[in-house]
Write a structure and sequence with these properties.
mainly alpha; two-stranded parallel sheet; 2 strands; 56% helix
């Protein structure tokens, strides 16, 4: 499995890469577009996990790239999955308690 980790605006001294402020606006979107195009050319069926992209970019990136690639944002979709699983667990536990009472 191929893994590519890109960290921006983080103070991780153990990671290699540019130590500079995150791009914003058109420059930011151009870098993401170039990255996604190169990634799809290299591995057309790759899963891209957008991690710590921030809500202000996350929804826009998911909506833009979802028709073209398999994309996932852990901060948004992961939290929603865990929340839904917790709700379903509570409901099933309640149902089990009600059935045991009969």
């Amino acid at each position: 499995m191929q893994v590519c980790q890109c960290e921006l605006d983080k103070a991780f001294t153990s990671l290699q890469g540019l130590k500079q402020r995150r791009l914003t606006g058109a420059a930011y979107h151009q870098v993401v577009a170039s990255f996604m195009a190169a990634l799809r050319q290299w591995q057309p069926h790759v899963l891209v996990q957008f991690e710590d992209f921030g809500n202000h970019n996350a929804f826009e990136l998911l909506n833009k790239y979802r028709p073209q690639a398999c994309v996932f944002n852990d901060d948004i979709q992961g939290t929603a999955c865990i929340t839904l699983a917790g709700v379903q667990y509570k409901q099933s536990k309640l149902l089990l308690l009600m059935l045991q009472a009969d």
